[in-house]
Structure formats: C-alpha cells, structure tokens
Design brief:
Layout: H1 9-33, H2 37-41, E1 44-53, E2 56-59, H3 61-67, H4 71-74, E3 75-89, E4 95-108, E5 116-129, E6 133-147
Parallel strand pairs: 1-6
Antiparallel strand pairs: 1-2, 3-4, 4-5, 5-6
Amino acid sequence: MTATREVSTRELTELVEKGKIERVLFDYAYNLDMNLPDQLAELFTEDCYVAYGPDFGAEGRAAYRETLDGIGTFFTATSHHVSNVVVDFSEDLTSAKVRSVLYAWHRYTKEGKADGYFFGQYHDDFVYDDENGWRFARRELRASGVVDFHVKKQIPIGRA
C-alpha cells in the first residue's frame, strides 16, 4: 500500500518561490559570463553587501557595479556553474537564506596567465518585494579550492 500525503499551500508556495530564486542565481551566472554588468547589478538590492574575498567586495549596488567594470577587460571568457541549491525561507516568505555550490572557470586577457578555477559555495541572503521580486541582499563567495585564481585571499567554506 502506498502512503499519500497532502501537500500544503506553504510547501507549494516554497517550491514556486525556490524556482524564482534559482532563476536569479542562474541569471547572475549568465550575466557574468556574457559580460553584462548592468543586468548583473540589477539583481541586487540598493543596499546590498557582496564579498568575493576578505579584502574584495562592495557595499551598496553602486559600489558593486563599480567592481564589475573590469569583467570585460580582465577576462576574455568565464563560465560559472551553479548547483546544489538549498533555500531556507523566513516565516513570512519575504526573505531566504540560500546556499549553492559553484564551479567557475576564468580565461584572463593577460598574455601568458593560466586559466583560473574556483571551487566553492555561494552563501546568499535574498529579499522579496512586489516591485522587483527576489533580489540579492547579501552574497558571499566561500572557497573550498582555487587554481590560478585572481582573488588571492579566500573566505573558507568552514569545513570541519
């Protein structure tokens, strides 16, 4: 005999909203790989915080957008692959803690520089509003390993 269980409205809402958050994660990777910094910055709140390393990041969308100015001249190509997305929603479904796994490859414009590889995680805080939908309020990149990566100091994943 197969047991059946009713799915709650909350579970259905979370499933739909998780899909919307995943779309933002994937749009981030796409916009970064396609060198679309304006579209990339629009995925963040005005008062966002971004940390790509302990000494590299930005506070606020305008400052974050400035950090993106080099993606067209520093890289000839990048490829960001996001998976293993876990979303924990707030009780009122207006914010969420999101963890995902990242593999990223970077081809640099500098002659003779080896391709860079990043293996790690994104730890994100998302917020929702009716006008913009889901947006990054906080994004932190944590490393489990790098090879010839341009950001020299990493935030570790916190492995036990």
